[in-house]
Each structure stands twice: as structure tokens, then as C-alpha cells.
């Protein structure tokens, strides 16, 4: 029990440490910064030569050719800002400056247009032909400390596939794992993504922007993003000169988890063109608690760090990135079953049969130990005003060890190591008016080696060659983008059965394409249409898996004769702004997937000396996934805002004329926010109510052990404000998730057969900038 | 200066890429390595072995189903001392792992669940806490009966084992159903 308050103590210690640091930093009076980009409101292109004036201080900044303006050494307080540019309506607004505002962007409107209201957008909207949604800084704040999946589920159309309370996998429009590409700072994340209980090996605290691409916008990064892509992007290294630091300290009451995070960065100066940033995150949590009992062995421990460095000359930009991710994840005891009989017993019991109802921080068996290392170098060279070449080289090492029941030896049952080396080259040109083209080439080499005492997937090596061309152009009210990509993939699989070594060679090649057309008749409406053709070769596990899946008592069998699946997706996004206060965003999609690879239950169960196991085989069917995502925002008073998010998915299996299993249920999330300090978006109190329906779209021929759980309603509270301590801004935030300690289970949690979801969780967050 | 550093970065990435040339071609045997794939029930009377009953699945879970599950035939109104042994077969060689279960006695218990017939079975060995283990047991048969079966279960239940646990507590390391008849 010495451990019991360990995390809390650490958190308190950090508070003390932070306040000491603050004392030393009192000299930094009037050292705030304000910067951002001024865009042309009609074209969303950065506007050079705009004048940004701070009226009360008489400071003036002129935007550079990237549209960037910068003020430094400002005192805190309220400022009137006036922005002017030839041919545009002047824009006047005010800003309340309590801390650094580094991404405070403006849209200027042409004088011919009648709208004279200010539009402040918080995120960069350069890529306007892609259907995507980003977590805004407020949503990032509200979910800080959670896993990547938990943060992304804030977006409509994104849900999570859970394994207990510790593993979260993002699901986009019903698709996940190999069908969702994850880009970590521009590099395709290559882990053991095929497993439904394998979470992405990424620390979301490395990111300043989290974006989900729902349509086809990822052609550049790979052809197999049938479901979409997730972009995890750190803030650009193109930052202001000087040394800065940010500290975060977060405490979660439910599993008594503490998180410490530090970011130290240094921007280039006139003397040195070097800039760098480093980050470190440590978190440790114990057993989670449902409203009625503790979940034994559900602790987590994570240590992540990264280094990002850049060097810039007039024409050349070099970038280096290293990141490390290490985690140990406990898997709930009660879900660890031996055979079909154990499973039936576990399901019959209201409370988990196999559990110790107490709190501790120990992580025993079963557990996952995962490490991921990424090293990347990028070189960008401006050939002339209109042409540019990018070159990337990256290497990743992924280690995954799954500890199961330790019957004889004390080693990991499953031990996988995947190494991936990628080289990319990309050439961009905008020599022609209103058009931009890029072509690229990508080579990837991969090797996966298994070890341990239980076979699950065989060793393989993989060679991938890809080439693509993308063309963008604009004409009047229309913006268009077309892309074409060709991929060749060769797969060598090495097996050892009955003392015989043998090799299987497979190769796949395919063409993928995308076309987007965006109709922007005026400043209020944009109607974006996106067509895509994508393909995904079957993964090694789908071809050759043969074994028991960790902790699920499912016996999985691959099919070596599977062929590539092909997706035809049409997505349309309608964005309408009545005025600056009210905005509607509707995304409709339909995704026809030919030869959709799917785990289907088969009879008879597999017989072993441990008993019988339900058996599943990978099979192919034609599927049609259609759905809608809706977001509606309105503010009816400067200090009150309402937001509605809803999503619906109809996952049809066309061959069996029924629904596909394990797809997210319809849900609606409503939120009311009160900004209690006038003029400040950083001080708010908000409440949201999430309703998730009982999943009705389930296969009628599927033998599931339990019907989908009942609908549920969750209430969360969020609060944040900024204080000043020793003249330094401190952000303080608090959230209460599952305020009413509701007892519920979710269809997308693979452990829903065994235990309830976690109960009330109070989160305290403290952020300091130095 | 930039060129010098970039060459270094390239070099690091190159070394990393070369080091990833793992021995994927040296695949390990796919047969399950560390599992119990042979169970023996040794029936003794007066110190003499009267029957050895075997269940075996040499290729582990999956692949082929268990290759052998012997039937048990016992005499009516007799007392048998029964020993259970567990083995791990790797590449044809058989290793006795019963001592591992003995060492982890506090985490394990063996159950004999009769169906279709009934007679008393008493566990004769105990773990350090004095809770039953079941590697050694005594079976007292009654009158002759119809064909039934006995389910041998090895339950794994670290930290939660008690004196009178239900056979469903924990998870099954072994669950073999032997046909059983009392003549």
C-alpha cells in the first residue's frame, strides 16, 4: 500500500517544483508573444504584406510571404487589433492576452464582399480539398492525458475499438487496424497494427495537431487507407527565437494515474539557424474502477520521449526527428479465460468471476509490453520560386511482447519485432497559374520476426514500391484535385512446420486513384465531393494466422488464398455558415468494399487438451458501409456556445444480406459551454451529454455470446481557466467524466462480456509555460 | 556545415536500416513450445500400477485435434490411488512438467468432475496454505455403472485460490474429458 499515493505525491511534487521554477522566472515581465497567419478569406491562401497593428501599444507587424505576423515582448492585457491589406476590408477585433498565443489566425475578406465580421480560425486550412476534421485546441485541452484513441473519439465519425479499460484503437467510419493509416510526423506508423487489441504506439502529447482524414487525402502516404488516415503532427519548428518550456501535470482519480510532461524548445535566431524541441512524458496508473468493483490488473505505465531538430538556410531545410514510446499495459484478469466453458461461466456471472476487488499499481500477467522507436530525416530544397524537392528517410523498430499465462517458462508467449525502413522522394511544382502538381516515389522494406512460446503469425519480409502523381487546380468557384498511385508489394513468408522450413512468395500490385471537387460559391458555403479507389492487400495475419488470440479465447485461422480488397468511396461534405456564430457541417459517405476481409465464426469449435475454443476464419465478402456525420455549432451570446455532434453508420454485408459485426452504434453528443471571462476562450465551464444507442445493425447469423449492450447516456463536465502566478500564466483544468457514475457496457469494447466500463473519473490538469 | 550534419543523419539512418535485416528466414518451429500436451493418469492399487491412461495432442492447440484420449475402465467397489502427470512434448522429446505445477501449487488445483456416474474422489495432497491440489487422489468406485465420463480440469488461479473453490474459478490450463466405465 506504500504505492497507493505514489502518483498523487509525484503530482504534488511537480506542483512544488513548478512554483519554484516560477519564482526564478519573475524577470520575464511583459514577455508574451502573439503570432499567427493572415489568410485570404476567399481562397484560404496566406496573405503577404498585410499590416497588423496593436492599437494601444502602437506596435505594427507586416506579414511575411507565408502570411505570418509576430509580436514579442507584449505585456498581458486586452489589445485592439486592426488588420489591413490592399483590396481587403479592414478587420478590427480585440484579444485578451494572458499567455502566449502562437496560432492566432485571421481571415481577411475582399472589399467586394459584404461580410464585415471577423472570422478567427484556430487551425490551418491549407489543404481544402481533403475531407477531414481536426481536434481544436479546446478539445485537445479537454482530453489531454488520454490515449490517442480517447482523444480522437471526440470527432464525429470517429469511434474507438476498446480492449478493456487500457487499449483504445481509433475507428474511422467503422474501419480500423490495417485500414486506417496513422502518420506520426509524416511517417507511416508501422507497428503490429493488425491486432484489434494493439493500440497505436504514439504519445499524443507530441502533437500540436490531431487530424482525421475521412475521404481520400492520404494517397501520398499509401494506397491502403480504405478507412481513412490519422495525422499526428507536432508544431512546426519554425518558431520564434529563444528558449521556452511547457510543463503539464495531470492526475486521474479513477485509476489514480499521474502524468508528467515537459516540452523544451528553442527557436532559431539570426546568429544560428538551428531550432529544436524535446519532449518527455511519463505516466503511471493503477487498477481502474467500475461503479461497483475494481478491475484487477488494469494498470498502465508509459515513458515516451522525442527530439526534433531543424536547420534552415534560405533554400534548404533539414529536419531530424527521433521518438521513443515504451508502455506496459495490464490486461484485465477477469477477461483472461482458458476455454469456451470458462467464457460461458464468465458471461453468466453478473460480476467478474476471476477478480481481486482492490486497488493497486502492480501489472502482472496478462500484460503487453510495447516499445516503438522512430528515426526520421527530412530534407527540403527549394529549386526555384516554384519548384521544391522533399526527401525523407526513416526507420522504425517495433517490439511487442505479450505475456499470457506462464505455465512453464517465465517468458513472453508472443514476442514480435517489426523493423521498417522507408525512403520517400517528392517533387512539387506550381509553375502554372492556379495549378499545383506533385509526383513522388516511395520504397519500403520490412521484416517481422516472431519469438516466444506460442505461434501466432509467421516471419515475413515485405518490399513495397509506390509511385504517385497529384494535381490540384482552381477555376472560378471550383477547386479540384486528382491523384493516381501505383503500388507493388512483394511478400516473403517463412514457415517451419513439422520440422520443415519453407518459403511462400506472394506479390500484389494495384492502382489507386482519387478525385476531389470543391465548390465554394461564396464565403458561407463550401461543398466538397471526394471519390476514391483504394486497395489493401491481405495482411500476413489474415493469410497465415493459426492460433489462440490473446485473452479472447478465440481460435483464429487465416486463409492463404485471400486476395486484395478494393474500396470505392464517395464522400461529400457540406459546410454552411449562416453567420460567424452558426455553422453546420454535414458529411455523407458510402464505401463499397469488394472482397472485404472479415473474421467469420465457423463450426466445429477447435478441440484441444485445454478444452474447446470458438473458431473464426478470415473470409471475404462484399460490403457497403454508408453513413453520416453531423456537427452543428452556434454561439448566441459571446459567452455561450452550443455544439451538436452526431454519427450514424449502416454497415451492410452484401453477400449475406445482413449487417457486419462489431461496428459502432449511432451516437449523439451535445455540449453547452460558458466562457465566463469576457473575451477569453481559455476560461470555460462546459457540460456534454453523450448518448450511444444499442447497436441494432448486427448480423442475424452471427453467434455472439451476448446481445449488444443497452443504450447509455454519459454526462461529462469540463472546466478550465488561466491564473497568474508570479507573473507567469498557469492553466488549470478539471474534468469529470461519467459524472453520475453510470453503469454501462459498450458494444465496441471486446471485454464487454466480462466487466462494466469505468465509473466516475475526476481529472485535474495543470499547465505552465516558462 | 549542414552537409556535414546531414551526412551524419544519413549514416545513422543507413546503419539503422542495415541492422533491421533480421533473420526472418530462420523461422522457429510453429508447434507450441511451452504447453502441456500430454496428460497421464496413473491408477495404483497396493503400490502397483494397474493402468496408465493418456491424453495427448503432440502438435499443441490447433492443427490436428488431440491424437489420443484413452478410456478409463475401473473395477466395481475398489479403491484406487491416482497420480496425475503433465508433460510437454517438443519435437518428439517428452519433458515431465508436473514438478512445475507442484512448485506453483498455491496457484493451481485439479478437479475431477464425474458425469453419468458417481462415486467419491478425494484429493490427497495440499499446497503450502493447506488447500487441496489434486496431483494425488483416491477414487472409491461403487457398483458397476453405465458408460460415463470424468472431466479432468487443471485450473490456474493465482492469488485467488481458496479451500473450497468452485471448479469454475480461474481459467482452464487443461480440460480433458476421459470416457469412464465401472465394470
- How far apart are the termini of chain A? 36 Å
Mean of all residue-level pLDDT scores of chain A: 85
- What is the number of helices of chain A? 5
CATH topology of the largest domain in chain A: Maltoporin, Chain A
CATH H-level superfamily title of the largest domain in chain A: TonB-dependent receptor, beta-barrel domain
Poorly predicted sequence stretches spanning 5 or more consecutive residues of chain A: 1-5, 10-28, 111-126
The proportion of residues in beta strands of chain B is 35-45%
Strand content of chain A: over 45%
Report the major sheet of chain A.
22 strands, antiparallel, barrel
In the predicted model, the low-confidence regions of chain B spanning at least 5 consecutive residues are: none
Largest interface: A-B, 67 and 57 residues
What kind of sheet is the major sheet of chain B?
7 strands, antiparallel
* Separation of the first and last Cα atoms of chain B: 92 Å
- What would you report as the Rg of chain A, rounded to the nearest angstrom? 26 Å
- Architecture per CATH nomenclature, i.e. the level-2 architecture of the largest domain in chain A: Beta Barrel
How does CATH name the architecture of chain B? Sandwich
- How many runs of DSSP E, i.e. beta strands of chain B? 11
Number of strands of chain A: 41
* pLDDT averaged residue by residue of chain B: 87
CATH class of chain B: Mainly Beta
Helix content of chain B: 10-25%
What this model shows, in words?
The complex is a heterodimer of chains A (770) and B (183). Chain A is built from five helices and 41 strands. By secondary structure, chain A is mostly beta strands. Chain A folds into two domains: 31-108, Carboxypeptidase-like, regulatory domain (Immunoglobulin-like), CATH 2.60.40; 169-769, Beta Barrel (Maltoporin, Chain A), CATH 2.40.170.20. In chain A, the strands form six sheets. Chain A has a 22-stranded antiparallel barrel. In chain A, strands 8-13-14-11-12 form a five-stranded mixed β-sheet, with no helix packed on it. In chain A, strands 3-2-5-6 form a four-stranded antiparallel β-sheet, with no helix packed on it. Chain A is globular, with a radius of gyration of 26 Å. Residues 1-5, 10-28 and 111-126 of chain A have low confidence and may be disordered. Chain B has 183 residues and is mainly beta. In chain B, strands 1, 2, 3, 5, 6, 8 and 9 form a seven-stranded antiparallel β-sheet that branches. A four-stranded mixed β-sheet of chain B has the order 4-11-10-7, with no helix packed on it. Chain B is elongated and about 85 Å long. The model of chain B has no long low-confidence stretch (mean pLDDT 87). The chains are: A mainly beta (770), B mainly beta (183). Chains A and B meet through strand 21, helix 4, strand 22, strand 23 and strand 24 of A and helix 1 and strand 11 of B.
Amino acid at each position: 500500500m506504500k504505492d497507493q499515493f505514489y502518483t498523487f505525491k509525484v503530482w504534488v511534487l511537480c506542483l512544488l517544483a513548478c512554483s519554484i521554477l516560477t519564482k526564478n522566472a519573475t524577470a520575464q515581465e511583459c514577455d508574451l508573444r502573439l503570432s499567427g497567419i493572415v489568410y485570404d478569406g476567399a481562397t484560404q491562401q496566406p496573405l503577404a504584406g498585410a499590416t497588423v497593428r496593436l492599437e494601444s501599444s502602437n506596435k505594427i507587424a507586416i506579414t511575411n510571404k507565408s502570411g505570418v505576423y509576430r509580436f514579442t515582448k507584449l505585456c498581458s492585457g486586452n489589445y485592439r487589433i486592426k488588420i489591413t491589406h490592399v483590396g481587403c476590408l479592414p478587420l478590427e477585433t480585440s484579444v485578451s492576452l494572458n499567455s502566449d498565443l502562437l496560432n492566432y489566425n485571421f481571415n481577411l475578406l475582399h472589399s467586394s464582399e459584404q461580410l464585415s465580421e471577423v472570422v478567427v480560425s484556430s487551425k490551418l486550412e491549407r489543404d481544402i480539398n481533403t475531407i477531414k476534421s481536426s481536434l481544436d485546441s479546446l478539445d485537445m485541452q479537454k482530453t489531454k492525458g488520454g490515449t490517442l484513441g480517447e482523444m480522437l473519439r471526440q470527432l464525429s465519425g470517429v469511434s474507438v475499438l476498446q480492449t478493456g479499460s487500457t487499449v483504445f484503437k481509433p475507428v474511422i467510419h467503422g474501419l480500423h487496424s490495417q485500414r486506417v493509416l496513422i502518420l506520426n510526423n509524416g511517417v507511416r506508423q508501422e507497428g503490429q497494427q493488425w491486432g484489434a487489441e494493439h493500440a497505436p504506439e504514439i504519445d499524443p502529447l507530441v502533437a500540436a495537431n490531431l487530424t482525421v482524414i475521412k475521404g481520400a487525402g492520404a494517397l501520398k502516404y499509401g494506397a491502403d487507407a480504405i478507412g481513412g488516415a490519422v495525422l499526428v503532427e507536432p508544431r512546426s519548428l519554425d518558431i520564434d527565437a529563444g528558449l521556452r518550456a511547457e510543463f503539464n501535470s495531470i492526475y486521474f482519480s479513477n485509476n489514480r494515474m499521474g502524468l508528467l510532461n515537459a516540452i523544451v524548445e528553442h527557436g532559431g535566431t539570426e546568429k544560428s539557424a538551428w531550432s529544436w524541441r524535446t519532449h518527455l512524458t511519463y505516466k503511471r496508473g493503477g487498477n481502474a474502477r467500475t461503479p461497483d468493483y475494481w478491475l484487477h490488473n488494469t494498470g498502465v505505465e508509459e515513458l515516451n520521449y522525442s527530439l526534433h531538430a531543424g536547420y534552415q538556410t534560405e533554400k534548404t531545410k533539414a529536419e531530424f526527428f527521433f521518438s521513443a514510446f515504451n508502455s506496459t499495459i495490464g490486461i484485465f484478469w477477469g477477461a483472461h479465460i482458458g476455454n469456451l466453458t470458462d467464457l460461458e461461466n464468465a458471461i453468466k456471472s453478473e460480476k467478474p468471476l476471476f477478480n481481486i476487488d482492490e486497488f493497486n499499481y502492480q501489472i502482472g500477467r496478462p500484460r503487453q509490453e510495447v516499445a516503438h522507436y522512430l528515426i526520421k530525416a527530412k530534407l527540403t530544397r527549394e529549386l526555384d520560386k516554384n519548384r521544391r524537392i522533399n526527401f525523407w528517410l526513416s526507420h522504425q523498430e517495433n517490439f511487442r511482447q505479450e505475456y499470457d499465462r506462464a505455465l512453464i517458462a517465465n517468458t513472453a508467449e508472443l514476442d514480435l519485432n517489426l523493423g521498417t525502413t522507408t525512403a520517400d522522394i517528392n517533387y512539387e511544382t506550381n509553375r502554372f497559374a492556379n495549378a499545383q502538381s506533385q509526383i513522388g516515389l516511395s520504397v519500403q522494406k520490412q521484416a517481422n520476426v516472431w519469438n516466444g512460446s506460442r505461434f501466432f503469425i509467421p516471419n515475413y519480409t515485405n518490399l513495397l514500391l509506390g509511385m504517385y502523381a497529384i494535381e490540384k487546380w482552381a477555376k472560378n468557384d471550383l477547386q479540384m484535385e486528382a491523384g493516381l498511385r501505383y503500388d507493388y508489394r512483394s511478400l516473403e513468408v517463412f514457415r517451419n512446420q513439422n520440422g520443415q522450413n519453407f518459403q511462400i512468395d506472394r506479390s500484389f500490385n494495384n492502382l489507386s486513384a482519387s478525385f476531389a471537387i470543391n465548390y465554394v460559391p461564396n464565403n458561407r458555403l463550401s461543398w466538397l465531393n471526394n471519390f476514391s479507389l483504394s486497395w489493401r492487400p491481405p495482411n500476413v495475419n489474415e493469410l497465415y494466422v493459426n492460433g489462440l488470440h490473446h485473452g479472447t479465447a478465440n481460435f483464429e485461422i487465416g486463409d492463404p488464398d485471400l486476395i486484395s480488397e478494393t474500396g470505392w468511396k464517395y464522400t461529400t461534405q457540406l459546410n454552411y455558415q449562416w453567420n460567424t456564430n452558426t455553422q453546420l457541417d454535414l458529411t455523407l459517405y458510402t464505401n463499397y468494399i469488394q472482397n472485404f476481409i472479415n473474421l467469420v465464426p465457423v463450426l466445429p469449435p477447435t478441440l484441444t487438451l485445454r478444452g474447446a475454443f470458438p473458431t473464426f476464419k478470415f473470409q471475404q465478402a462484399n460490403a457497403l458501409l454508408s453513413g453520416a456525420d453531423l456537427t452543428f455549432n452556434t454561439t448566441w451570446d459571446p459567452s455561450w456556445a452550443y455544439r451538436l455532434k452526431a454519427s450514424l453508420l449502416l454497415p451492410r454485408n452484401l453477400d449475406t444480406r445482413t449487417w457486419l459485426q462489431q461496428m459502432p452504434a449511432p451516437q449523439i453528443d451535445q455540449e453547452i459551454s460558458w466562457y465566463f471571462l469576457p473575451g477569453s476562450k481559455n476560461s470555460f465551464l462546459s457540460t456534454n451529454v453523450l448518448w450511444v444507442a444499442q447497436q441494432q445493425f448486427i448480423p442475424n447469423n452471427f453467434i455472439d455470446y451476448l446481445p449488444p449492450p443497452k443504450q447509455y447516456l454519459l454526462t461529462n463536465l469540463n472546466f478550465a481557466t488561466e491564473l497568474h502566478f508570479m507573473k507567469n500564466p498557469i492553466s488549470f483544468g478539471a474534468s469529470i467524466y461519467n459524472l453520475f457514475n453510470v453503469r454501462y457496457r459498450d458494444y465496441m469494447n471486446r471485454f464487454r462480456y466480462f466487466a462494466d466500463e469505468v465509473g466516475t473519473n475526476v481529472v485535474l490538469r495543470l499547465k505552465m509555460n516558462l | 556545415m549542414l552537409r556535414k550534419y546531414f551526412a551524419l543523419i544519413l549514416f545513422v539512418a543507413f546503419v539503422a536500416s542495415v541492422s533491421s535485416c533480421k533473420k526472418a528466414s530462420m523461422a522457429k518451429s510453429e508447434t507450441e513450445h511451452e504447453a502441456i500436451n500430454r496428460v497421464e493418469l496413473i491408477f495404483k492399487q497396493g503400490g502397483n500400477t494397474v493402468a496408465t491412461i493418456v491424453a495427448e495432442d503432440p502438435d499443441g492447440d490447433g492443427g490436428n485435434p488431440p491424437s489420443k484420449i484413452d478410456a478409463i475402465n475401473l473395477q466395481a467397489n475398489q479403491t484406487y490411488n491416482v497420480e496425475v502427470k503433465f508433460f510437454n512434448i517438443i519435437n518428439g522429446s517428452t519433458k515431465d512438467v508436473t514438478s512445475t505445477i507442484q512448485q506453483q501449487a498455491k496457484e493451481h488445483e485439479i478437479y475431477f468432475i464425474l458425469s453419468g456416474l458417481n462415486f467419491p474422489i478425494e484429493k490427497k495432497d495440499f499446497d503450502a496454505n493447506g488447500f487441496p491440489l489434486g496431483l494425488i487422489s483416491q477414487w472409491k468406485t461403487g457398483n458397476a455403472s453405465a458408460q460415463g465420463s470424468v472431466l479432468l480440469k487443471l485450473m490456474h488461479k493465482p492469488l485467488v485460490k481458496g479451500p473450497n473453490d468452485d471448479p469454475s474459478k480461474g481459467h482452464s490450463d487443461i480440460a480433458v474429458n476421459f470416457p469412464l466405465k465401472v465394470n
